[in-house]
Amino acid sequence: MSGPEPHRALSNDFTRAVGIKYPIVQTGMGWVAGPRLVAASAEAGILGLLASATMTTEQLGSALTEVRSRTDRPFGVNMRVDAADVEDRLALMIDAGVTVASFVGAPNAKVVERCHAAGLFVIPTVGARRHAEKVASLGVDALIAQGGEGGGHTGVVPTTLLLPEAVNAVNGSVMVLGAGGFYSGRGLVAALAYGAKGVAMGTRFLLTAESTVPDAVKAQYLAALVTDTVVSTKVDGAPQRVLRTELLESLESRSWLRSLPTALANAHRFRKETGLSLRSMLQEGRQMKTGNELSWTQVVMAANAPIMTKAALVDGRTDVGILPTGQVTGVLDSLPTVAELVEEIISEANATLVRLSG
Predict the structure, then answer these.
(1) How many C-beta atoms surround the C-beta of residue 72 within 10 A?
(2) Which residues, in sequence order, are CB contacts of 351 under 8 Å at separation 6+?
(3) How many CA atoms lie within 13 A of 282 on its CB side?
(4) CA-CA-CA-CA torsion sign (129, 135, 140, 146)
(5) Would you say the C-alpha torsion 106, 111, 306, 200 has a positive or negative sign?
(6) Are residues 186 and 251 in the same domain?
């Protein structure tokens, strides 16, 4: 592993706990964070998270094998907290020597206990202070506090307010990382100043050479302004930040009743993509409804997001797919390799820390 030596402020409890050189996490973006991107992140000295929510159990096993064929460095896997086959997935992760189990939302206490028994470091992502308090009470090792600037499903509180609030809420009981609006070394230093142990980035890693997103779609992201994103509930019923497109404008004009046939069709497609049985989907839907305080309409709509995301980010069909993104897309103008990106971020962070220390 090459790259600049980190300033002593960049080496902390988090980097030591997960065995990485720099306090940066490449997030588990569905259909994007595959073996190539995750391995490149690990080789660059950061924590790469493999996105497994859009994979069947068999696909996850193959992806884990591929990551291990590309790197022997630590990496993690991002999972859905309501996955019916979570035990099978954990078994695959343990066999592959995965270091970190990442979740969007709060895993239940049994899952946390199972992960810890296997030696996995547990990191959920939250979007509100009360959610930070909840996951801390479950005994997780760290949490990612994602502010409203973040891409995909997001909250309303900006990172500049949420991150220090989350740090205060857990009061040192778990490590906190910041997400939403981060893309540079100066941002990393700002997160440290708020009390975080590091940062997590999604959009910035989507726009790298190792990302498998089609080039034409990457160009669309790079052409966007910071004002070209919108938080919509019309994709799957939950607030999601995406690029503003003609499709999104069309969705915004529809009632939920008009969207229901599409949602049911996408639910069927999602079941085929992930290999879930109808019983498993109903079970997960019930868990989603209870755990996230959703209506049944929102639960039915939930299948829209992964299918419409796949259409754009895998198939390149932006006419029928959505483009999840953080607001940082409006300030990005390059497609570096992951190694180049990490070196640039750390070099800037080092210089910033030296400047601030006089």
Answers:
(1) 12
(2) 185
(3) 3
(4) negative
(5) positive
(6) no
Query: What pLDDT is attached to residue 46?
Result: 98
Backbone angles phi, psi at 243, to 5 degrees: -70, 145
pLDDT tens-digit readout, 237-270: 788 999 998 888 877 776 655 655 655 555 555 5
Amino acid at 264: L
**Pairwise CA distance, residues 244 & 100, whole Å:** 34
Same domain for 231 and 111, yes or no, is: no
Higher-confidence residue of 237 and 99: namely: 99
Q: In which residue are the tokens 């592959």 written?
A: 96
Q: Looking at the 3D structure of the chain, how many domains does it have?
A: 2
In a domain, 182, yes or no: yes
What angle is formed at CA 14 by the lines to CA 13 and CA 18, rounded to 5 degrees?
115
The two structure tokens encoding residue 184: 């540079």
The 10s digit of each residue's pLDDT in 179-211 is 999 999 999 999 999 999 999 999 999 999 999
Q: Give this prediction's pTM.
A: 0.90
**Six-digit token pair at 352?**
């910033």
